[in-house]
């Protein structure tokens, strides 16, 4: 069972009077993969944090069909003094349900079997992010929220993690909401790409990605993939012009 999300007139105005997100309606179906794209300052991360319950909307309501949520931040935010296993198991320990076996399995699912006793300083940036993803899924969430998790990585590592994330989603069918600045990343991963424009943040397009559900790495070189990227780019440009 996966979680659905519905935003009804959700907006956010900060204390200084800056309207970060205009009243927004958005429905995300259970088991779907939706990306939010847009320029800096368009409210992508703010929307994600409101979906997660990490920030309260100023207006409107956020409805989730399930409270089992995993969140992956842009930085791995690992405890440097703790092993990969201990970092992964942290949510279980905080919930009073320490279970190293579950944490070990989560690390295996992200390709880090055998790295349980390794500390963050000995892991590459991509491996640290894998630990962060394992930590997010160790509690068996039905909704996985990801805020530009691969933005700081090199392209080769980013592509590999995209491939692995897509395989995990196809296996588990979590509901995923993924924030990114990369049109190519959004198109490769998603069933829908929601395009936002700034001042204030608002949805200007909701693009259904017309690509096969099984997406091999070679798809990035196809004309079909390029066409879908062009559609999203056109929507993004139109939104920026309107802003």
Observed structural traits:
9 strands; 36% helix; 7 helices; Rossmann fold; 6-stranded mixed beta sheet; 3-stranded antiparallel beta sheet; alpha/beta
Description:
The chain has 243 residues and is of the alpha/beta class. It has 2 domains: 146 residues, P-loop containing nucleotide triphosphate hydrolases (Rossmann fold); 61 residues, no CATH class. The chain contains 7 helices and 9 strands; from the N terminus they run βββαββαααβαβαββα. The termini are far apart.
Structural class of the helices, strands and pairings? alpha/beta
- CATH architectural designation of the largest domain: 3-Layer(aba) Sandwich
What value does the average pLDDT take? 94
Number of helices: 7
The percentage of residues in β strands lies in 15-25%
Over the alpha carbons, how many angstroms does the gyration radius reach? 18 Å
So what's the CATH class of the largest domain?
Alpha Beta
CATH level 4 superfamily of the largest domain: P-loop containing nucleotide triphosphate hydrolases
Estimated helix fraction: 25-40%
What pattern of helices and strands is seen along the backbone?
Answer: EEEHEEHHHEHEHEEH
Structural domain tally: 2
**Strand ordering within the main sheet:** 5-6-7-3-8-9
Shape: globular
| Annotation, overall tally of beta strands | 9
Q: What composes the largest sheet?
A: 6 strands, mixed
